[in-house]
Amino acid sequence: MSLPRRSYDPRRVCLIPLPQLPAFIQTSKRQFGIYLSGALFALGWWFFLDATIISSMRRRVPKDPTVPYEPPATYITFADWVPGLCGTLGMVVVNLIDKQHLTDVGAAFSFGGGGGFSGDSVQWRARLFLFIGFALMAGGLAGSITVLTVKYLVPYLPEGYEYYGVANVVQNACIMFSTVLLWLSQNTESEYEYNLTL
Q1: Which residues of 35-186 form beta strands (DSSP E)?
Q2: Which three-class secondary structure state does DSSP give residue 108?
Q3: How many Å apart are CA 24 and CA 150, to the nearest integer?
Q4: How far apart are the first and last CA of the chain?
Q5: For a designed S-S bond to 62, which of 21, 52, 67, 185 qualifies (C-beta 3.0 to 4.6 A apart)?
Q6: CB-based burial label for 83 (10 Å; 0-12, 13-18, 19+)
Q7: Across residues 53-64, what is the average pLDDT?
Q8: Cβ neighbours of residue 36 under 8 Å, at least 6 residues apart?
């Protein structure tokens, strides 16, 4: 290296130091992550609701009969809502799972009634529900990309209609990032949390 030894730390990977996080973020990383996750979720739904309102306004027939009305080439239907609803349901399922249940070995739990899952481990069911939640979110993102492609990009539409599909993809991407951020934020221990066991 051409730098003198005193000007860099040999344990570092990068020579250029990354900026330090502000002090208010360093002291409350967990709360900041939760709030940022909520903001991402709201931003995703805001994009989609914006596209829905624009679609509704374009479909509105003018009250004045002298104004010519041309119906829109396409508009948002229930098929556009399904990917966002699947992603939101997946977010709820993923964040209802306690991370501790994913690592419990040999923990037994019975749903009552004595049949079916009695005697099975909680870990297996927690992993199953985690898989279902992420599958719902991945299906929502794939569905939104499919709707964008099939409904808004393949057919010839006038300028501006592709925003409906792009808003749907942005919504599902924000929901996925929000879920991962919330999962990581909620399952980290805060500075003031103590686990007391007897």
Answers
A1: none
A2: strand
A3: 46
A4: 54
A5: 67
A6: buried
A7: 83
A8: 181
Helix (H, G, I), strand (E, B), or coil: what is residue 197? coil
Neighbours of 174 (CB within 10 A): 23
Length of the chain: 198
pLDDT tens per residue, range 78-87: 999 999 999 9
Determine contact, residues 97/129, Cβ cutoff 8 Å.
Answer: yes
The Cα 125–Cα 46 span in angstroms is 34
Neighbours of 84 (CB within 10 A): 23
Q: Where are the alpha helices (DSSP H) in 4-77?
A: 23-27, 29-59
Neighbours of 130 (CB within 10 A): 18
Residue 156 phi/psi, 5° resolution? -80, 115
Q: Which residues contact 168 (CB under 8 A, 6 or more apart)?
A: 48, 51, 80, 83, 84, 144, 147, 148
Task: Please tell me the number of Cα atoms within 13 Å of 11 on its side-chain side.
Answer: 0
Q: Identify whether the C-beta of residue 109 lies closer than 8 Å to the C-beta of residue 196.
A: no
Which structure tokens are listed for 76? 């948002």
- Mean residue pLDDT of the chain comes to 81
Residue where the block lists tokens 């923990």:
107
* Predicted structure pTM score: 0.74
Segment 148-197, tens digit of pLDDT: 999 999 888 888 889 999 999 999 999 999 999 998 888 666 555 555 56
